[in-house]
Here is the input.
Amino acid sequence: MPNHDAAQSALGYLHQVDWALVEMLENGPDRPDQMMMLEQFDDVSWQGDAGPTDLLQVKHHVGRRGNLGDKSVDLWKSIKVWLDDSASRAVDGPTLRLVTTANCPGGSAMEALKINSARDERRALALLDQAADDAESAETKAARELWSKQPKDVRASLVSRLSVLDRSIPIDQIEVRLRRSLWWVGLSEVNLALFVDQLRAWWHALSVDLLLKRRPPVAAHEVRSRAGLLRDGFSSSSLPTSIARPSKAEITAIVDTHANHVFVRQLGWINVPTNLLERAIIDFWRTVEQTTVWVANHLVDLLELQEYRDNLADQWDHAWDSMLRKLPPNATEKEKEDAGYDLWSQMRDRVGTYLRSDFQESFYRNGILYELANVENPDESHGWHPEFESMLRQLTVGRIK
Here is the structure.
């Protein structure tokens, strides 16, 4: 049987990470001197030099929105988190926020503390005190008892510092919120979707480092800077890189899938070491995937790509002719392999001839070279070994007529 509780918990954690990005984009510009952290003081926390200034509990529900009534588990779990911590419990403690996809029922304590509504802190406090006494749930018992033990000034202070954002967007609608927060980048709707995917992927990787305590808290200007760099990738002189280098597990699968490609056979004929052969396959794979994304999002057209391939093919032809001239008439097989390897190294490490002036990812240029060498027909293919044409004919006997 599937574990639906585990699935909901996983979605909750993902939503927490995504909501932190929303928070950073929307409130970060007003907090230039503050930093954000995940799972340090709270689910999401803003902090200054003196400690936490704003603590967020982020709650997510799948399907039914849930109910943030006075006896709800989400509410009392959040209260317990805050009361367990001396800093958030203090009368002069940080601002507290409860962000939830659930709904605050009419007449409830949390309705009296909703953001952008008339606050009634006295009523909210009275309702929480009453719920702490009347509720019977074993799941909230510890939190309610802890609440009742607090002096009135502590309870009143917590209520005064608490704001609630209910009916928050669920995780499957977070991209819409992010697009609205990023209107200022000035991209078309199609490109904005790709841009948001890239920024979100970067934020997820950064969040892993935050959760593992491998980096200090993140400042708003870092997010703004990254967004600016990604935005530059959509200019007429550049392109966005959305296909990252795969993980080790993914590399193994990709290499296995491409092991019999023509360009891989050709690299084998010049004795390219296994580790470099693997890199070549990944460059080829990333190039194919990246081209697909660009074309699908109308960032490049087929004519521009064909012109780029033709330019690289012309350079290869010149380098090929130069290699043949340097080979002695009676060259040994080893000399031929070495000459082909030198040609491959020369073309692979060549600087310049980029698809666009500000897009200088070497994997893409190399990937196009491997595409040129991945053609079975020796009359249309490119290669490195001085005798690659005859070797291709032997390889493709029976398949090319």
About this structure: The beta strands are 35-38, 44-48, 51-59, 95-100, 162-165, 218-219.
